[in-house]
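Researcher: Quick test of sequence recovery. Tokens follow.
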């Protein structure tokens, strides 16, 4: 088996074991792993594609992943031309920007995010009004692929039901509410914990009393035998006095004190020696 086929089989397994409710991709047949179909949900609101579900095709070169795949939409969207290879940084139009570490999952996530962008003369891109794109989004749900034999809504509904069985809770717009356990383990090992953004109110927040914690038997025994002493009230920091700084420096650097004493003894010795020589 060629390295390209092994890579494609690995990606197909990974898409099944760690599914995303936002998109579904699979080879058209088991005999040809270089021809895939994908079904993707539109970006979230307020995007004009929010209610849409789109179907497309992925053609992978025999040297994949050294060379990038090509993508084309089969469902009218108002963003990309139908059945025409689209020009993206992750597609075959820009081999110089493709990285072999990327894959089908990465590409579909990029396509979903690129849909809200402007065409600006992009190959395979369309510039139409927002009303036309919303109309295409509503009609896209009932669009049927001749090869798959199912509507986009049926394909994505079945896939989201599979995601729920894998532990991914799917909201109305396909938002992932629960991360699969396997993905959660990888995130905790490879990524730092992201800070949680807290909403700031315009009014000053009232201080809430600390929650009451029921002590465990071990903690209760410790508290009974060693009662806690109330901590003194916090005071503003006081700048250290010079004498304190010198004392701290002397305690931290004892070798410096010895060096100073040695220099003083040497100076006294030299002065006494000159005095003795002058009297002689």
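Model:
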């Amino acid at each position: 088996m060629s390295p390209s086929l092994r890579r494609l089989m690995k990606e197909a397994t990974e898409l099944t074991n760690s599914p995303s409710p936002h998109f579904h991709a699979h080879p058209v047949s088991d005999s040809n792993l270089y021809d895939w179909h994908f079904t993707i949900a539109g970006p979230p609101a307020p995007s004009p594609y929010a209610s849409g579900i789109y179907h497309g095709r992925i053609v992978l070169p025999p040297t994949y992943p050294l060379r990038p795949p090509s993508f084309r939409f089969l469902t009218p969207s108002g963003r990309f031309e139908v059945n025409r290879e689209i020009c993206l940084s992750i597609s075959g139009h820009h081999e110089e920007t493709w990285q072999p570490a990327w894959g089908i999952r990465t590409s579909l996530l990029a396509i979903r995010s690129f849909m809200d962008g402007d065409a600006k003369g992009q190959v395979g891109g369309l510039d139409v009004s927002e009303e036309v794109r919303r109309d295409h989004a509503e009609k896209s749900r009932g669009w049927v692929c001749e090869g798959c034999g199912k509507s986009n809504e049926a394909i994505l509904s079945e896939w989201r039901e599979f995601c729920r069985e894998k532990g991914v809770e799917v909201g109305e717009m396909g938002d992932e509410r629960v991360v699969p356990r396997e993905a959660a383990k990888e995130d905790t090992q490879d990524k730092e914990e992201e800070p949680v953004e807290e909403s700031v109110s315009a009014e000053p927040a009232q201080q809430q009393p600390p929650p009451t914690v029921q002590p465990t038997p071990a903690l209760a025994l410790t508290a009974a035998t060693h009662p806690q002493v109330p901590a003194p009230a916090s005071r503003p920091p006081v700048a250290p006095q010079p004498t304190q700084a010198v004392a701290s420096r002397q305690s931290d650097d004892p070798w410096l004190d010895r060096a100073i004493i040695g220099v003083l003894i040497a100076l006294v010795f030299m002065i006494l020696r000159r005095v003795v020589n002058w009297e002689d």
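DSSP finds eight helices and four strands in the chain.
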